[in-house]
Amino acid sequence: xxxxxxxxxxxxxxxxxxxxxxxxxxxxxxxxxxxxxxxxxxxxxxxxxxxxxxxxxxxxxxxxxxxxxxxxxxxxxxxxxxxxxxxxxxxxxxxxxxxxxxxxxxxxxxxxxxxxxxxxxxxxxxxxxxxxxxxxxxxxxxxxxxxxxxxxxxxxxxxxxxxxxxxxxxxx
Length: 172
Hints:
Blueprint: H1 2-20, E1 26-27, H2 28-31, E2 40-43, E3 47-50, E4 55-58, E5 65-66, E6 71-72, H3 80-94, H4 103-107, E7 114-115, E8 131-137, E9 143-148, E10 153-159, E11 169-171
Parallel strand pairs: 1-7
Antiparallel strand pairs: 2-3, 3-4, 4-11, 5-6, 8-9, 9-10
């Protein structure tokens, strides 16, 4: 009796532990064929044009530059306030209108069913698996919104004093 109770307890514990496991997300590089840009059109200057939403994205993280096939340089990890100052200076010097994307805009980059990162690596070749800043402000003081590119989850509980990467977007 005691032996069957131990065996039953062991099987229940094993069932419980195995039900807690999550499968790893499919890596987007394995899911998306090279040269497949989805709904994006690649234009000169490292720009990915989202024709459906009339937006242009810079293909590299802030601080990097696009060399024709990849992102070179080191992404700048900055607080959200520092990032906004850098974007403002960039726009003043270049006459452009780049900005931080909203959560909704960031979420539009997510390729369902893949992760690590959850965005198309052909479009964004240097994207980090990291929390990226969004323009949305959190209702909680001291926090900001962003998207974690591992699975594309969004949150408005990112400490605004931490340094994170950014993507740039503009309307056309």
